[in-house]
UniProtKB/TrEMBL annotation, chains A, B, C:
This is 2-methylfumaryl-CoA hydratase. CDD domains: FkbR2. SUPFAM superfamilies: Thioesterase/thiol ester dehydrase-isomerase. Gene3D superfamilies: Hotdog Thioesterase. Pfam families: MC_hydratase (PF19315). InterPro entries: HotDog_dom_sf, MC_hydratase, MCH/BMMD, Thiol_ester_hydratase_Rv0216. It comes from Bosea robiniae.
Length: 353, 353, 353
């Protein structure tokens, strides 16, 4: 009967997830040049490949691709109403791979599969593991990643249907990298225009790089960003309701921090133009409007990519802090993170050789 | 003689309007994909038709159309310097009809006709009724609406040239709906991608829907929006001058509230993809930066559109509040609006059948 | 050896500049319709030529050109990491000429030549004069301007390699104007759509125009703008570090003030659609978030452009103030600027004849 069914979704609770569930997420999204402009205004990224059709065209792209993290945020945003509307915490990422460039005009949509479930000992929540897949309008996979998140139960004490913790690779292997990057015309790669004379071979494992600059975040900025990604997590938008939470204010979307840190990392990693994979990541502490973000990187690994003489891969730890410059590379004291640290991300970037 | 005429416009006063006056408003505006991206970042709207070229294309649009309210704001914004620069209050809208889709690349311009004048008993101001018409670059009408606004007199006590109060329909008729929506290929309309399994027939007259989420507004956000629409009403932009007003701060453009409430209404009305008509609307109370907007809807009517088996129309009341969630549908106590209510809008939306 | 070279740039100090040095600045930038949309949202500019493809097309442009000042900011932004990262103050501009229209899709890059050096008497800093050239993807010059800036020495007391102060024209000559503007089809120029009935010949030298409106600036707005231009000057972004400076807060990019004042100047100069040249400019005092910007203009000169019967040039002084309306044209008391004045800009604009 018309009108008999409640029309509003309040999101899935832990009991609503079943192993093997396949979820089609709403709202396909055409990514256009306007989104790229906004992304630029939000983070000030300066990587030449994503900034210039002429530069990208010279080295072998048909046109400047959409920033990898903008792709990530849009693919991720779609999962929020179905996966994490009742989340207590976003616990981690693994095995994220950028498999195909995205260009202005492409339409992104996302599906997720439930690959793991585990209830907490307290019995009022459980960890949901999903693999999310972003596809373009030709149904080609552009991004695949695993994520796990702590989700409330509708009724505390309910048992999980089944439990299983998936095995996830600690890092994407070098031979799995590079699909998201066309073959680069090295002779046309102009270091002066790119803003860095350091190629893949100039970085050493163990090297640490302070990215120097800081960026203060305003409420309007992270709200604009998070809405651009059609991410509806209410903790980012509702200051009225936030008054009743333990923080008392809006939380900034963790992906906003990743994009800020990545943009800051240009100063020191100007040729690391493509994020090929995300090995893992942790939002160590929350960021709030008014805080200033700084970042530093450590080279965790360096690898050739089989069959690719044009680009090499660096495995990078990207650490972001708040309200503390990174000249001395703050990270941990013993097992504990330094109180300034907000992000600890492990990813593979590609650089020209 | 050069230099002898003051170059600055201070806007029309009540005495400057005459019945039948036709006004060509300045600054035609090409609406591009970048405007759509900004609109998305400002409100986080998730209707699939406006978000995805692929989704829109599958159901019969040439490409994703520009959001109806973005069209409204741009057409409206042009009227401000000529109609409401000296307005005391924006009193109402009626008979608003979206008559043709607008696509990226279209150029919008606006003309208005003065259709009514009535001075106030106090004699220091008068109500100006205009019908404003938005056209595209082919001179096709895309939007037509009536609006009335209280405008100051240049000299209190001056008599109006003539008085006339126009008769305006209480609601647009069902047979007048649908021109702004091409025939929809129902078989291609994907509920999962659209984010709602509720079609036109699933809603009942009298049904009320709480849209749950809240959105806090920042000064930077409403200023960006209002400038995007080239709306020059100074009450939205000048905090220095606002110190001397009764509110003491900047007022947020009422259209910003409409767009926020419409975006929030996706949760519960995900398939109401097109605004076909605005029957009437009232900005009940002002919104200020820092306030959080919530919304709920009531189904006022349901109608078939003659000759259209693809879409049906719902007449919806969209109520927005500030700093108060809408689980109990706040509206009025007796004749008085609840103090939280800021918007009471009556419109027709189309949904697939 | 890999890892042996510090990867982070800390910018050039005074000693690092040599007369005749040629600098290729990083990050070519494709300017797209999305950038134009953001520019519109940031300033609310209403000049019809830049706003409407239809209007621009009718008078002889292939499509609406990118706003001249957006071109300026993007070309300028690229110079910051190489020229002014260690600047104490931005001292002035001269001989700025817009030589070719920029359209959506064009890619801008910048080179600079060091044309002058002069150390200060204190010996801890020096003035660096550069001529910066912006080019499109066809290597055509779109903008050329001289700028001088006070830069810290790495080691106080170091002598300059050579000193030379360039001679810079006080004003661009009328015969040098107009290259950035195609021949205009005057018959198609519609004053009503343009928003002003005043053509070039209606302005008199000495005439002063109050632009009436005020615009309050938010932190999020100037940060979005300055990042859009990929301008990395840290004084605009880092509130944490700013606590230790004499202002104690972030400074707003001077170019943001120019764009705000230019947009406000539409009210009074609606047909001054093209900035042909910047004769000189001074940022008299800093602007901070929360301040409200007002503006007024004085007609300093009026000139025919040889061979051009379609457009004429007005030399304009554009003065911006903060937190003070401009009805009485505040400028100087004796030698001192009025404390409200923040910008004193001298430029040539073109208007239809």
């Amino acid at each position: 009967m018309p009108g008999s069914t409640p029309k509003t979704s309040s999101g899935r609770f832990f009991e609503d997830f079943h192993l093997g569930d396949s979820i089609v997420h709403a709202t396909p999204r055409t990514v256009r040049a306007g989104d790229a402009a906004l992304y630029s205004a939000l983070y000030g990224s300066r990587f030449a490949v994503q900034s210039s059709d002429a530069f990208a065209g010279a080295i072998g792209y048909p046109t400047a691709p959409i920033d990898d993290l903008l792709v990530f945020h849009i693919v991720f945003g779609k999962t929020v109403p179905d996966v994490s509307l009742n989340a207590v915490a976003n616990l981690g990422y693994a095995d994220g791979r950028f498999l195909r460039p995205v260009y202005p005009g492409d339409t992104l949509s996302t599906t997720s599969e439930v690959i793991g479930l585990k209830q907490t000992s307290a019995g009022d929540a459980g960890i949901v593991y999903v693999r999310s897949i972003g596809r373009n309008q030709r149904n080609e996979i552009v991004l695949s990643y695993a994520r796990w998140v702590l989700v409330r139960k509708r009724e505390p004490g309910t048992l999980a249907h089944a439990e299983q913790v998936p095995e996830l690779a600690k890092a994407v292997l070098p031979e799995q990298l590079g699909e998201g990057c066309p073959r680069i015309e090295l002779a046309a790669y102009d270091d002066a225009l790119a803003g860095s004379r350091f190629r893949w071979g100039d970085y050493a494992v163990g090297e640490r790089i302070d990215h120097v600059d800081g960026m203060t975040v305003e409420e309007a900025e992270h709200q604009l960003a998070t809405r651009l990604y059609q991410n509806t997590a209410r903790v980012h938008f509702d200051a009225h309701a936030a008054q009743g939470t333990r923080f008392g204010k809006r939380l900034i979307y963790g992906g906003h921090v990743i994009s800020l840190a990545r943009a800051l990392s240009f100063n020191g990693l100007g040729n690391a133009f493509h994020i090929a994979a995300i090995n893992g990541g942790r939002h160590v502490a929350p960021l709030f409007a008014g805080d200033t973000v700084y970042a530093w990187s450590e080279v965790l690994g360096s690898a050739e990519i089989p069959g690719r003489g044009d680009v090499g891969a660096l495995r990078l730890r990207l650490v972001a802090t708040k309200n503390r410059a990174c000249a001395d590379f703050p990270l941990k004291a013993g097992d504990q993170y330094d109180p300034s640290v907000i992000l600890d991300l492990d990813y593979w970037a590609l650089l020209p050789r």
